[in-house]
UniProtKB/TrEMBL annotation:
Membrane topology label: Multi-pass membrane protein
The keyword Ribosomal protein is assigned to this record: no
PANTHER family: ALKALINE PHOSPHATASE LIKE PROTEIN, UNDECAPRENYL PHOSPHATE TRANSPORTER A
InterPro entries xrefs: DedA_domain (IPR051311), VTT_dom (IPR032816)
Subcellular location: Cell membrane
Keywords: Cell membrane, Membrane, Transmembrane, Transmembrane helix
Domain VTT stretches: 30-155
Listed name of the protein: DedA family protein
Chief subcellular location: membrane
Organism: Tropicimonas aquimaris
This protein's record includes keyword Aminoacyl-tRNA synthetase: no
Transmembrane segments: 49-71, 135-158, 165-190
Length: 211
């Protein structure tokens, strides 16, 4: 897939970059991160202009984010239920739901940076569960800017090592995602244990202090 897209860059350039990024924000499996990084490499070779790559990638991300958010706002919980019919997609949605439920706007920002594989899913979840549009946008836009800048700059600075860098990024993203899920699950269990201890303490209070 990425080889096909790279072959089209000389013909469609920035239009291809922006389009692929926007569509990938709808959870369509396109290698947008690798394409933006490769476009940064093209900029280093003089075939593209770096600031234009960053701007177009950022614009595509914001547009895709907003479309996903408003689709889910219109579809609501029933849309998420239909999207969970596939097990792999259901797992990603459940992780996104857990992050948004616990961290709100911070989860939206994190899903565009340190846990970017969850980016499209947090957009859908945010719209479906009623996270405010302004709250979502104020977190999503800076996250999109960081994402576009980081990947384009990586390609620009390490143009000769993009293939190796891509492997490291994919492996690192998987590790970060797993760590985030583990931390979130641990926090949830800790809160549940605290609630249980408090309830038990309250229930036993009359026995210790009879009136």
């Amino acid at each position: 897939m990425i080889d096909t897209l790279l072959a089209l860059v000389p013909f469609y350039g920035l239009f291809l970059v922006g389009g692929v990024v926007a569509v990938s924000c709808l959870a369509v499996p396109l290698p947008s991160s690798m394409l933006v990084m490769a476009s940064g490499g093209f900029a280093a070779a003089g075939d593209l202009v770096l600031w234009q790559v960053i701007t177009v990638a950022f614009a595509g991300y914001v547009i895709g984010d907003q479309v996903a958010f408003h689709i889910a706002r219109w579809g609501g919980a029933p849309l998420l239920s239909r999207m969970k019919t596939r097990p792999a997609r259901a797992k990603l949605l459940e992780r996104a739901e857990a992050l948004v439920a616990r961290w709100g706007a911070a989860a939206v920002l994190a899903s565009r940076t340190i846990v970017s594989p969850l980016g499209p899913w947090t957009s859908y979840v945010s719209g479906a569960v009623g996270l405010g549009w302004r709250t979502f946008t104020l977190a999503a836009v800076p996250g999109a800017a960081l994402w576009a800048t980081a990947y384009a700059m990586l390609g620009f600075l390490f143009a000769d090592q993009i293939a190796d860098l891509a492997t490291v990024i994919v492996d690192g993203a998987a590790l970060i995602l797993a760590a985030a899920v583990a931390i979130g699950s641990g926090w949830w269990l800790w809160r549940g244990w605290r609630s249980y201890r408090l309830a038990a303490q309250v229930a036993s209070e009359p026995l210790r202090n009879p009136r």
